[in-house]
Amino acid sequence: MLTVNLNEAKTHLARLVEQAAKGESFVITKAGKPLVKVTALHPPKIDQTHRLGFMAGQIIVPEDFDRMGADVIDQLFNSKA
Fold this sequence. Notes:
Pfam families: PhdYeFM_antitox (PF02604). It is a single chain. The protein has helices at 6-11, 13-21, 70-78; strands spanning 2-5, 26-30, 33-38. It is of the alpha+beta class. The chain has two domains: 2-38, YefM-like domain (YefM-like fold, 3-Layer(aba) Sandwich), CATH 3.40.1620.10; 51-78, no CATH class. The chain has a three-stranded mixed beta sheet. The protein is elongated and about 60 Å long.
């Protein structure tokens, strides 16, 4: 894997990013110590994207969902300990 120092990365950033986008990851170092790894991002395939409502009809939310546990919460906050 290619390793470049920070100053070199600043000077050649466009070229380095193009290489990373093609799958050639690289590491940027400062004073000889690795700081970051630059690698390509691959967008998800169309069939991998998440959709709102994808579990519609498979989950039932109770009518009192927003009040569930209210008595316990009230007791915890209002009890004199």
